Amino acid sequence: MKRITLFVTLSAFIFSSSAFAQKYGATPEDSVKCLMSNSLYQEYYKQKQWKDAYEPWREVVETCPQYHTNTYVRGNNILANLYATAANAEEREKYFNDILWMNDKRAEAFGEKWNCTARKAQAYQQYKPNEKETIYNLYKQAAEEGGEQLDQQYCVLYLQATIQYLAAIKASTEQMSILFDVYDYASETMDHALTEKSNELDSVTQLGDTKKIEKLQKSLDNTRSNIVALESLIEPYAKCEDIIPIYENRFQANPNDVALLKKITTALNGKNCTESQLFFSATENLHKLEPTPKSAFLMGQMLLGKKEYEQAAKYLEEAENTASDISTKAKAAFQRANALFNAKSYSSAREAARRAANYDKSLSGKATLLVARMYLATAGQNAAFAAYDEAARAKTLDPSLTTEANRVMSSAHGRFPTKANLFFEGGTPGSSVSVGGWIGGTAVVRTKD
User: Fold this and answer.
1) Considering the chain, what percentage of its residues have pLDDT values greater than 90?
2) Sign of the four-CA dihedral 128, 133, 137, 139
3) Structural domain boundaries of the chain?
4) pTM of the model
5) Which one, out of 10, 52, 207, 215, has a CA that is 20 to 30 A from the CA of 193?
């Protein structure tokens, strides 16, 4: 009786306005059917009467697939519960196929085909986990369809599915390269999302919109969690001795393939495999073929590791000068400071360290400690005073550097004069003294006793 009353009420309301009657579905009749079925299934849904909800829910998807995205969210819950309580394998197969059908309908109605394809892959993972190849291929299809637009959670699941698929087929060394292709894609997608959300958060923060700030912060935290999950999945396969053989053959076959060179340099740099000959060769080729701030930075890092400090400094200067983003400029300047320090070009090294700190305030402590080491490496008692002062300032700027700063201070202290010697020199503890030389400025006079 309740259902009949509801139908009559809805029908009277809908047909009272021909414009409203055509809002859902292709015809006014479709609108009646849609609203009636929607109301029915939602009542059953609230009461967790899944079997009763099933038919009217399915009617909504068929008649008015664009009614609301919640139709598909609730549909997933309905089908999951029906699958769990199905009487036999035939019923389970029916509900599983409905999940696939529902996601096809959702893609037609609301777009984002890639995420719908990924949901189908996720359904296979949940209900048919042994079909490793199908799961992998569906995620691969989703990634090809969506590119950087694929939802982050599916990037993580894609990598997981790839690992499981390669294990199932007992992949060869050559086949394992697929794993790093997927990892590269997923990590690049995550990095893109992180950059976009960080920029958006900066803009919203300036406007002071608290609700949007909280929402974006949660989204950023979620992205960072996904990145951690991604790194955790790849970690067992990310040893240099595993990665290098995978890329070595591909490099030998195509040493001038820019896309491949980017993958190799990114993978090896990301996993700290920068001391290998492969990294050297790939980085060098990439910089010759397509010089960018990133390739210049990699060349600098590589040469720094090989202790070719002057050459390293040249590439790092190129990276700093050509980079458009502050982060790369800061990293390049700091590494250049390290290279010049090792090349004993202290004055230029200090300038680079201070630029790095200006680009990125979080590097202030490290840059100051590096300058302290430069002063310590310079002969003279007054240079030791200056080194002590800089090291003390470094640990104030960055307490995590306390242990390293204390070592510099201890070494500087060893070069201080005794009170007796200072007396004969005419100095006074605690006074200021001109340092002179390339260091310049003043420092506090101290004694070792």
Assistant:
1) 60
2) positive
3) 1-111, 129-238, 380-449
4) 0.63
5) 207
